Amino acid sequence: MGIYEVIERYLSENRVGILATVIYRAGSAPRDVGAKMFVGEDGKIYGTVGGGRLESDARSEALRIMGKPQTDILHIRMDGKEVAADGMLCGGDVDILLEPVSERFRDLYKAIGNFEKKGKKGLIVTKFLRHHFSKTFIDIDLKCIGDELPEGEIISLGRHFDDKKPLISEGVVIEPLQVSTVLYIFGAGHISQYISKIAKLVDFYVVVIDDRTEFANRERFPEADEIIVKDFKDIFNNIRFTGAEFVTIVTRGHAYDADVLRETLQRKVRYVGMIGSKRKVKIILEYMKKCGFDEGAIESVHAPIGLSINAETPQEIAVSIVAELIKIRGEV
What is the C-alpha R_g of the chain? Predict the structure, then answer.
């Protein structure tokens, strides 16, 4: 469950909290600018701003100002002596913005969560100038939810939708919504169950696809964002491809794998991987050549899928696959 889903749940239960965001980082501090942690009024924490002292100090300060309509900036300076004394592995300087989460912004947080889950672009603009605190969510159509902004400022902010990192200036944080990467899992067998679980833990938007209702169902894939029961050949006209999607092919047979791979190679994707022995992979890739795909497209296929970690069980194989997905996702 993402930070904004957690916030929405707390507010629906008439509970408040504090949202902590890293707005400055120097040295070897563990988390980059934009890292978030939510501290509920019950003291529970979700997400992380770096663990250890960072997390402990942020939680303590959040609990101190809990319920107050104010923001706070926590300055943490970790020089060599402090790092050694605390037994930490990382040093550096970090500033953490602590902002109140209350009913006032309930619609805003709900909108952010919905856009995040659907993979839609948006901007979160947080202002904390002196005693003034405001928060606005701007969607791709430049419509605002939350506090109002001048029309000229909204238009100017539009250029930041595709930024990769937050922009921090004096008293203002402009954050492009970090949407989840879509992962299409073709096949709903045992390995897919573990791929789905692990991929969801690391913030992929998981879509499970199979033509068998007895396998592709909510009981077997409770964490999946979507479950689609449809013939592998027919589904490609009903799912979206923008070039950023990840595709894992783990169906129950060679013929199905070949069908899915052939359809996938006709579309632009960020990653495509296919399970199978070296012999099976060789046969299918040779078939792709006969289908007319060029060497570049065929060489882009990660097959056999996953990082080489001597995986044997379905769980281990899933770990190797998701590890490869994380590796590719992190490449610029």
Answer: 23
pLDDT tens by residue, 48-81: 988 788 889 999 999 999 998 888 999 988 765 5
**Spatial contact of 305 and 273, defined as CB atoms under 8 Å apart:** yes
Question: CA 300 to CA 293: how far, in whole Å?
Answer: 11
Four-way CATH pick for 181-329: 3.40.50.10860, 3.40.50.720, 1.10.290.10, 3.30.450.20:
3.40.50.720
Helix, strand, coil percent content, the chain, rounded in steps of 5: 35, 25, 40
Scanning the chain, the segments in alpha helix (DSSP H) are 3-12, 52-65, 80-86, 106-118, 151-157, 190-201, 254-264, 278-290, 295-299, 314-329
Listed in order, the ranges of the chain carrying CATH 3.40.50.720 are 181-329
DSSP 231-260: -TTTGGGTS---S--EEEE--SSHHHHHHH
User: How far is Cα 40 from Cα 119, in angstroms, rounded to an integer?
Assistant: 26
Quote the crossing angle between the two packed helices 190-201 and 314-329, to the nearest 10°. 40
Distance between CA 230 and CA 188 in Å, rounded? 12
Give me the count of residues in the chain. Answer: 332
For residue 91, what pLDDT band results from cuts at 50, 70 and 90?
low
Strand partners, 21: 36, 97
